[in-house]
Every structure is written in structure tokens, then in C-alpha cells.
Amino acid sequence: MHQLIASPFLDEYLVLRPGLDTGVQIPFARYLELGKATSTGTEAPRWLVDGAHQAWGLELPAHRPLRDTVLVRAPSPYGMARASYEINKGCDYDCPHCYLGLKRFEGMPWADKIRLLDIMRDAGVLWLQITGGEPLIDREFPEAYSYAYDLGIMLTISTNGSQLHKAKILQTLTERPPHHLSLSLYGATEETYDGFTRNRGAFGRFIRGLDAAREAGLRLQLNIVITKDNADEFAAMEQLAERYGQVFVFTNMSPTIQGDATPIPEQAAKYLRRRKPFTGCNAGHTFFHADPFGHASICKIGRDPHIPLTREGIEGLKRLGGIADGLQLRTGGCAGCAFGQKDADGNPGGCTTCRPMAKLYQEAKAPQNMYCQHPDREPVR
């Protein structure tokens, strides 16, 4: 099993160590040198041995072929660098703020999951977020995760942590460490957490999973989700999260991907943050999302039009850039500003979300200032 990954990443060439945050940028000539060494069965060059020791304290084994420890990724003409994969929309929680709305246990057969992951590798995807629903409850998660890891993909997992204490999950993640685990935190007490997730015993399983992951040495990121139901525990949630890893805070709720406004009233008004103007993103150009059926879209929000990757194959990705550009155009309900452009005084446009997200807010009949900075709008409710 590889200890390092050497790979193109957009216009750069990187050497990365799974499970760790640091990497080493190398020139193209050295990337070619590593590729030749793995194909000819020669040892690691001295500069890589020294670099691995300095960057990660890793002692590459002497007198062994480089290919035993370093996986060298082939270049891709498709220009994708990152992706997300919604392996299953099913979840063992029923949180009121969830943007997915209906959470069904649906997905592809194993052969199609393998085909999708192969396409991602061949498209150039170096970083992949595996998400859901709750990805760890997918019956084929360990196998799909291991397969993606062995392809030389750096993996992150977005999870509620309810399954992290289970032996098979822990074994999978310790043998093949993810870049990090991203866990959502919904309360600091059993009463609040279990009530919010509508799942008795959820808080105990969450803490058990956190403890098991920390003991296994896995990198953790805690995402505090503040809503009207748990806002009074914010300080306690911060203290809890800081014991385990890096902490992020999320306050603004979005409609569901079907344009349902149900999650919006869950917001805690005191903690809402004003969004910065949207200045563009690389969705559909260097990033894409795949749903449980292998439908590739520009992102998790702009899901239509989509491309059925398992049917069309990797060539279908060539159409994503055009789809992305089309989805970012203004649609009905927006007027009076130059989207994505600065005005004559150098001020950015008034949109605080991308067009696909603004469209969901419009369909949900949300207050306009939730996605727009035009003056004289009603306050966020």
C-alpha cells in the first residue's frame, strides 16, 4: 500500500501523504522522474527520501522499488482537481435543517460505484469528499472508500459520527487514513442532541465515535451547526469541539435542494452572518459533484442539468463547463445589478450567493436579503 502520492494538481505537481495536511510541491521534471522510477522498478531518488523525512518524518525503505511506497498518478486531460460523491442520501438522523429534504436509501450497484470512482481518478480528481446522507451507513462504504484510496485519491468524509465507533469502520479508516473527517455537532447535551437529530441515544454514539477516532489518530474537523434549537448551548458546543479538533461554525440555513423553505425557520437570528458578495467559483470547471446514481453536476446545489457519467463515460464531463456557465446567468426575479461584476465605483455585484443557490431561495420564497444585497429589503426572518 502506498505511503505517498505524487500527482498533478491543476498546473502544479504535488507529493502528498494520506492522513496528513502537509504536502510538497515539485517541478514537472521531478514528477516525470518519479513516474519513470515507478515504471522501471528503481529506488526512490535521494531528494524524495530527504523530502519525505523533512516534511513528514517518514523514512522511505531503502533498497526497495519506489512503486512499493509511492503511487504516481497519471496526468489527465480533463482538468478536474476535486469532486464530491454523495454515496447515499439515506441517513440515521432526521435533522430539521437538512438541505437534502427527502433522505432515501438509494444508490448504484457495486460495479457502477467502481466505474464512477475510476472516472473520477481518470478525470484528475485528487481530492474527493465522500458525503451523504450519512455515508458511513452505506453497506458498501468500506469497500468504496478503500477502492478510492487505492486509486491514489486524497479522501475526506462528511459524517455525523454515529458509526465511527464500529470496528469495521475504524479498521478501514486506520489502515487507509483519510485527509480528515468532517463531523457535524448539533448539541452539547444528550437532551438537545438527541432531540435535534430525532434519534434516541445519538449523542452517546457521537461521543463514542469521537473518542474512538481520536484514539485511532484520525484528523478531525468539528462543524458546529447553530439553530434556534441549540443556540443556548453554543459556548458548550465550542468547548466540546475544541477538545477534538479544528472547529468551524455554521449558522445560515439554505432551502432544500427541491426548493423547500422548511430549513430556513431553523436559523438562530442572533447568530446569522451576513454573506460576502459572490465573486465566482470553479464549479463545473475544475470541480464536480456526483449523486448516488452517478449523475455528475456542477455542485451539490446546481444539480440540473446533469450528466449520467456511468452511461456516458468520462467524455460527458466535457459538457460540465458549459452547463456551469449557463447556470450562473441571471434568471427570473433578479434585476438591477451586474451579476459577478464590479460597478463603476469598484463595488462588487449584489448577489451574496451563486445563481443556483439564489434560485432555490427564490423558489422557497425566502426574504430577498438572504441571497441579495440590494438595499431596503425586509430583514432576515
Structure summary:
It contains eleven helices and 13 strands. With about 375 residues, the protein is an alpha/beta fold.
Helix content: 25-40%
Please tell me what the overall shape is.
globular
Tally of distinct domains: 2
The rounded Rg comes to 22 Å
Question: What is the CATH topology descriptor of the largest domain?
Answer: TIM Barrel
**Count of alpha/pi helices:** 11
Mean of residue pLDDT values: 91
Q: Classify the oligomer.
A: single chain
Query: Span from first to last CA?
Result: 52 Å
Q: How many DSSP-defined strands?
A: 13
Order of helices and strands: EEEHHEEHEHEHEHHEHEEEEHHH
Largest sheet: 9 strands, mixed
Please name the fourth-level CATH homologous superfamily of the largest domain: Aldolase class I
Architecture (CATH level 2) name of the largest domain: Alpha-Beta Barrel
Q: CATH first level of the largest domain: which class?
A: Alpha Beta
Query: Going across the major beta sheet, what is the strand order?
Result: 10-9-8-7-6-5-11-12-13
Low-confidence stretches: 343-348, 376-381
